[in-house]
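Last lecture ended with a question: if I hand you only a sequence, what can you say about the shape of the protein? Today we answer it with a concrete record. The protein is Non-ribosomal peptide synthetase component E (Peptide arylation enzyme). Below, first the input exactly as provided, then the predicted structure, then a couple of comments.
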Amino acid sequence: MNENVENLVLEHLRIIRADLSSMKDELSGARAELLIIRQHMAGLSGGQTLHDFEIAGLKVRPDRIEKRLELAE
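The predicted structure:
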């Protein structure tokens, strides 16, 4: 009886180990996907910052032109 219990425990431990290994692989894949998403978001954010800077520069130009042509006060 004792041997059967020991074998049963070992069998369950092997199953648990296999499940943990599978979960570890899935977690590794999820981490890789998350890293890709973070890199993509950083690229989008950087691109948006550049566009914001360019738009700010374009907003200043009419004011400078108006001042130069003495159209603004």
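Comments.
1. The first helix runs from residue 2 to 68.
2. The CA atoms of residues 25 and 46 lie 32 Å apart.
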